[in-house]
């Protein structure tokens, strides 16, 4: 479904990613791990097209998206929940969710039930401004906005960062529900090792902007964790 080949990307004169290759298969939850500053968010932005690739390629469902803009990637079925949520604080909760439809393939102006069914508290807050929500509620809103586009691939960048444990558990349940349905693949960047091990099917560890290790859950042992993830 998603194939990243020898990707190089960065900011200005700084090269952050070097020769990164990874893949995500349909229905799979692939997790990106690594210490702070190794390039996880840069990789997410590069896959979504917010950062231009300097070298390498990004392919999705067999189509080369390397030079395609973010909007085109979204219309092809890639949803994105960025680090920091990036909701619109002056818009209502409902208006924020509606923005997800701009990239979607469903009916304009009609929020799919699946977008909010997984976060039942959101419809009760439709009239509130996004900026008035708690951090955890804003994360739920960002997640629902991405689901409104009915994506086939969902990019999740640090969805558990800075939110209360109860909503972390809710997000875990939502990811498991998406996996169980089998229609949407997930690429998840997350710091919490316990969280990713509870939902992930395959893992990539970044170090200094490169893939330093990859493998399945059974291979993600204490030695690997100590070498690449322990601070």
From TrEMBL:
GO molecular function, one term: ATP binding
Keyword Transport: yes
UniProt KW keywords: Amino-acid transport, ATP-binding, Nucleotide-binding, Transport
Occurrences of domain ABC transporter (ranges): 2-231
Species this chain originates from: Paenibacillus xanthanilyticus
Keyword Transport: yes
Lineage: Bacteria, Bacillati, Bacillota, Bacilli, Bacillales
Span of the signal peptide: none
Family: Belongs to the ABC transporter superfamily.
CDD domains for the chain: ABC_TM1139_LivF_branched (cd03224)
This protein's name: Urea ABC transporter ATP-binding subunit UrtE
A family per Pfam: ABC_tran
GN (gene name): urtE
